[in-house]
Amino acid sequence: MDGRGTVRSRVDTVTEVRATALSLESVTRRHGRGGGRGTLALDAVSCMVPAGSFTAVVGPSGSGKSTFLRCAAGLDRPTSGTVRVGGTDLGKLSEAALTRLRRDRIGFVFQSHALNLVPSLSIEENVVLPLVLAGADPVDERVLARGRALLDRVGLTGVGARGPAALSGGQQQRVAVARALVTVPDVVFADEPTASLDPESAELVLGLLRNAVRADGRTVVMVTHDPAAARWADTVLTMDGGRLR
Ligand code: ADP
């Protein structure tokens, strides 16, 4: 199932990758001390996110959106249930393998542009960082070209040599989108990506996510409390009390 070993299982995995980018099967996450009751932040959540789709996860504060995203993206382990990204069962991975999967097969755009970019790196170094962390040579022309192509894609041609501080918050968030796409990930997770932006910058960022789905076939899962942002998605999942409504 997870592609180890035979050619047959590899073919099965690739087929599954195309069909379903992300699936949760009866995923429960209880926060709190071991064995105690704690808080049931996710209560037997099941869903399938098709490859090449844009999904918004909405719901009131405390409904479990962040916990959903953290479990789905392999940043947190469910108390029970199964999460699969591109057919890989995250629960079967060691911490090291999970870290590699997050780096190579998942893109992240966080809420605040201040958290997204490394201030001491140039903008183009930020964009290609996931490739470099995976072992690519940062001065390899193909790596640099990929970084430039993505900056072009997000409308920031020619700014690559500057530092993040030279850009506005909205522009920095567009760099974060470029970086999230650089590895051609199975899923891009965006956590309130427009929360700190003015409406015009927010529209630009949402348009880039939309375009990554429509033009490039990427899969985007976005947590948002903003109904206007959710309207850019193909599918809206509503959370309430740790469940999908
Ligand atoms: P949302 O993102 O919709 O605001 P969260 O996933 O952050 O919801 O939280 C869901 C529930 O889980 C809330 O009741 C919250 O207080 C609780 N919770 C979230 N994270 C923790 C944690 N680390 N420890 C204890 N409780 C938590």
Adjacency order of strands in the biggest sheet: 6-7-8-3-9-10
Please indicate the count of domains. Answer: 1
* Count of individual helical segments: 9
Q: Give the low-pLDDT segments.
A: 1-8
Give helix % range.
25-40%
CATH topology: Rossmann fold
Radius of gyration: 18 Å
The chain-level mean pLDDT equals 90
Q: Based on the structure, what is the oligomeric state of the protein chains?
A: single chain
CATH architecture call: 3-Layer(aba) Sandwich
Total beta-strand segments: 10
Under CATH at level 1, the class stands as: Alpha Beta
CATH superfamily: P-loop containing nucleotide triphosphate hydrolases
Give a short summary of the structure.
The protein has 245 residues and is α/β, with parallel strands linked by helices. It is built from nine helices and ten strands. The strands form two sheets. It has a six-stranded mixed β-sheet, sandwiched between helices.
